Amino acid sequence: MADKPTKGLADVVAASTALSDIDGKAGRLFYRGYDIHDLAGRTTFEETAHLLQHGSLPSRDQLAAYGAELVRGRALGGLVASNIPEIAAKQEPMEALRTLVSLAGADDPDKDSNAADANLRKAARLTAQQPLLVALYHAARTGATIPDPDPELSIAANFLLQITGRTPSQREVEIFDTCLVLHADHTMNASTFAARVCAATLSDMHSAIVAAIGTLKGPLHGGANEQVMRTLEAIDPSGVAQTVRDKLAAGEKIMGFGHRVYKTEDPRATHLRKMSRELGEASGDDTYYRMSKEMEEVVFAEKGLYPNVDFYAATVYHYLGIPTDLFTPVFSVSRMSGWTAHVIEQHADNRLIRPDSEYIGERDQKWKPIDER
Ligand code: ACO
After folding, report:
1. Measured between alpha carbons, how far is 279 from 126 in angstroms, rounded to an integer?
2. Are 140 and 88 spatial neighbours (Cβ–Cβ below 8 Å)?
3. For ligand 1, what atom is nearest to the CA of residue 248?
4. Which of 113, 247, 251, 337 is the 20 to 30 A CA-CA neighbour of 48?
């Protein structure tokens, strides 16, 4: 008979990884041994994706080569490109991305190979295409025409330009780029685990990423950032404390708070809080930042819970002009770098992931013919 399960697999070590590491008690996060506090604001998203997928922070030459690969990799296949308008009309953003990445897999020249070199090429294409898919989806549903990505601009700059329709300031680009760095990888989170389970059957990278996108979509995971903004928008600024207390009294969870691993402040939230404050003040109306700060204080006083990555990301994206229902897609733009790196790692040293279960159903049932049931 199987052992008692740990509900939600808490504290179960499900894989070995050299990609990221969390010290939940100290509130520290590392990508391949680099402290997130050293990377955030100093390393670009492209450098971070290279670190995760290729194993090292790139030299200038390596970064130029990787950047060129990302630019080439943005070219979408005909199947995905031709279906964007209909998908944008029928599917919500995360549903659409799940479908679009699946379609993109059909046109990928390496789709039939899980070899290390093919996986690296697919990882670059997926990382390059994800922001474009979000932008093309948004353009299709709003009827906007967006500029082609500028090969001279970063992923962060191109994305903000395509989504908001205006040239972002240098500081806005830096802040958004830092957001992408902060969300790039996070050990065995639910969507990464889903990707690894899929990859461990020796299924292909696009299938694993589709599993990850479907998992990130849920409000207990990546979907929380959108819910944070919806909560802020629904609350009267003078009634933050009371609303939070009422929700807690009703047994509701406050989105953007709590974490399975961190027992103290999530180090990503430290950066996001500062950026939210900066953007709020620069916008001339920092109401949502101030409401967030008050909410943080009340939730801590009432429940001892800290904000997670999704809490201040919500107001940062809002101040950057990103539509609220694209917040979780933005998360996927960044996390694509980590998901793909995990698929590469899983395929490089694979064993099927197949845990056991504890049976809690009926036993010794007596079968009866259908007319006697
Ligand atoms: N608001 C109110 N209470 C909470 C919250 C919250 N946000 N989070 C946890 N709690 C409470 C639970 O009600 C529970 O209380 P109880 O022991 O009295 O029943 C206790 O804290 C433990 O909570 P669990 O849900 O069992 O913790 P778990 O580790 O399973 O869940 C999770 C972690 C999913 C992040 C949870 O904190 C949550 O639902 N938060 C809100 C959603 C959210 O922000 N998700 C994003 C997480 S970050 C990310 O995925 C990128």
Report:
1. 30
2. yes
3. 2
4. 113
Whose alpha carbon is nearest atom 31 of ligand 1? 260
Beta-carbon count within 10 A of 70 CB:
21
User: What is the per-residue pLDDT across 209-241, written as a single tens digit (0 to 9) for each?
Assistant: 999 999 999 999 999 999 999 999 999 999 999
pTM of the model: 0.96
Q: Exposure string (b/e) for 183-193, b if CB count within 10 Å is 16 or more?
A: bbbbbbbbbbb
Q: What is the pLDDT of residues 248-257, one digit of tens each?
A: 999 999 999 9
pLDDT tens per residue across span 12-24: 999 999 999 999 9
Q: Is 38 marked active-site? A: no
* Overall residue count recorded for the chain in this entry: 373
Give the distance (Å) from ligand 1 centre to CA of residue 326: 23
CA pair distance 308, 133, nearest whole angstrom: 27
Distance from Cα 220 to the centre of ligand 1, integer Å: 8
Distance (angstroms) between ligand 1 centre and the Cα of 271 equals: 21
